[in-house]
Amino acid sequence: MPIWDGSMLLDIKNIDVLYDDFQVIWDLSLSVKTGEMVALLGPNGSGKSTILNTISNLIDHKTGDIYFDRERISDRPTFQRTAMGISHVLERRRVFPHLTVLQNLFLGAWHQQAKQSRQQSLSKVYRMFPKLAARSNQLAHTMSGGEQQMLAIARGLMGLPRLLMVDEPFLGLSPMVVKDLIGIFKNIVAEGISILFVEQNVRLALSMADRGYVLESGRLVITGDAEDLIDNDMVKKVFLGS
Amino acid sequence: MTFEIILQAIVSGLLMGLIYALIAAGLSLIFGLMNIVNFAHGEHLMVSMFSSFWLWSLLGLDPLFSIPITILLMAGCGVLTHYLLIRYILKAKMLIQICATFGLSIFIRALAQYLWTPDFRNVDQPLLEGRIELGSLFIGQPQFFAAVACLLAFFMLYLFVTRTETGLALQATAQDREAAEILGIPSNRMFALGWAIGLGCVGVAGGMMTNYFFVFTDVGVNFALFAFVAVALGGFGSIIGCLYAGVIIGLVESLGGLLIDPSFKLLYVFAIYLLVVIYKPQGLFGRY
Question: Which of A230, B78, B212, B213 is 20 to 30 Å from the Cα of A162, by its Cα?
Answer without folding.
Answer: A230
